[in-house]
Design brief:
By secondary structure, the chain is an alpha+beta fold. The protein folds into two domains: 119 residues, Nucleic acid-binding proteins (OB fold (Dihydrolipoamide Acetyltransferase, E2P), Beta Barrel); 165 residues, Nucleic acid-binding proteins (OB fold (Dihydrolipoamide Acetyltransferase, E2P)), CATH 2.40.50. The chain is built from nine helices and 16 strands. The strands form three sheets. Strands 8, 9, 13, 14, 15 and 16 form a six-stranded mixed β-sheet that branches. Strands 1-3-4-6-5 form a five-stranded mixed beta barrel, surrounded by four helices. The chain has a three-stranded antiparallel β-sheet with strand order 10-11-12, with no helix packed on it. Helix 3 runs antiparallel to helix 9. The chain is globular and about 70 Å long. 26% of the residues are buried.
Length: 321
């Protein structure tokens, strides 16, 4: 039997405002947009599986299934002939590690594809919402880690002109076309292998203040400024090793060799610009910093972007009426 009045659903959008402790249990209902493979934790042989659920707020949240819930989920999904699966999770815990996520526990009850009004209404919405279905497809094809995919998906969409006026403290994303590379701004430095931050040299000693380690293993890293453009204006952004490697389709070792070998900065800039594709999604660091620092970069799914714009325009037209 499925509970009909014994649960109180919480929107996935409001999870960040919830207290994440052992006494606060939540009831959530969502469409499963991504399901990872089950695996066994080597420490204590615990079976785990990560699934991503989405509700009408279009916010996606990771739910970690533990032990018997993994088998329960697999059995129910295999028996389901439908293309989309709804999941009602009663009594899940909220946790935070870099980002908020949900996890099953002792008092959790799972209901896959429950036959009730709430689940039917949610499924009808999902089937008719092209943006939600595009988001599901993007989750399974983007190639990002689940943490990066969730952060990118849930980041607030904005433009260059709007972002400059927005209050920091949250992840923002924008679609921008890279139009210039400031090769003179590229700085090569020693970074901590563990955290990737700059190593400080104090009295012939190397110290990582973030890891609080002396003489940590180091790796060569790079930072630099590039200019991006959208329909509202331009903005100079700061990128680091992984983003630069991604955009320029190269490794930091090859880039370092190129910078050392090519002394003509104009030729170097022209060479680097030939490696750049048309546009990217830029996700920005949530802290309020003097420079516009990019957290990470990924390719644009134009089908999803168009679906989002169409959804926003349709919503605006309904409100105006």
């Amino acid at each position: 039997m499925y509970p009909e009045t014994l649960y109180k659903l919480v929107s996935l959008q409001s999870i960040e405002a919830c207290n994440y402790n052992d006494t606060n249990l939540l009831d959530i209902l969502g469409i499963v947009v991504h399901a990872g493979k089950a695996f066994v934790c080597n420490d204590d042989a615990t079976r785990m599986q990560e699934v991503v659920v989405l509700d009408r707020s279009c916010v996606a949240v990771r739910l970690i299934l533990m032990n018997q819930f993994v088998s329960e989920y697999e059995n129910e999904v295999q028996q389901s002939a439908g293309q989309y699966n709804t999941l009602l999770a009663c009594g899940v815990y909220v946790r935070k590690m870099n980002a908020y996520f949900l996890i099953t526990g002792r008092y959790t009850r799972l209901f896959i594809n429950p036959n009730n009004v709430d689940a039917s209404t949610l499924l009808d919405w999902f089937v008719c919402d092209n943006f939600a279905k595009r988001k599901m497809k993007w989750f399974n094809n983007c190639g990002l880690s689940i943490n990066r995919a969730l952060s990118t998906s849930n980041a607030i969409r904005t433009t260059i002109a709007s972002y400059k006026r927005k209050r920091k403290g949250k992840h923002y994303r924008m679609v921008g076309r890279l139009i210039d590379i400031d090769v003179d701004s590229f700085t090569w430095y020693d970074a901590c292998t563990f955290c990737g931050l700059d190593i400080q040299h104090v009295s012939e000693h190397m110290i990582c203040s973030n890891c609080n380690k002396e003489k940590p293993p180091t790796t060569i890293s790079v930072s630099g400024y590039m200019t991006i453009l959208d329909s509202t204006g331009t903005m100079c952004v700061k990128l680091f090793t992984k983003q630069i490697e991604f955009i320029l389709h190269s490794t930091k070792a090859k880039l370092k060799h190129m910078f050392d070998a090519v002394h003509d900065r104009v030729l170097l800039r022209a060479e680097l610009l030939t490696r750049v594709r048309n546009a990217y999604i830029f996700v920005f660091h949530p802290l309020h910093l003097p420079a516009y620092i990019v957290d990470y970069v990924t390719y644009v799914d134009w089908a999803e972007e168009c679906a989002y714009l169409f959804k926003m325009r349709s919503t605006l037209n309904v409100r105006q009426q």
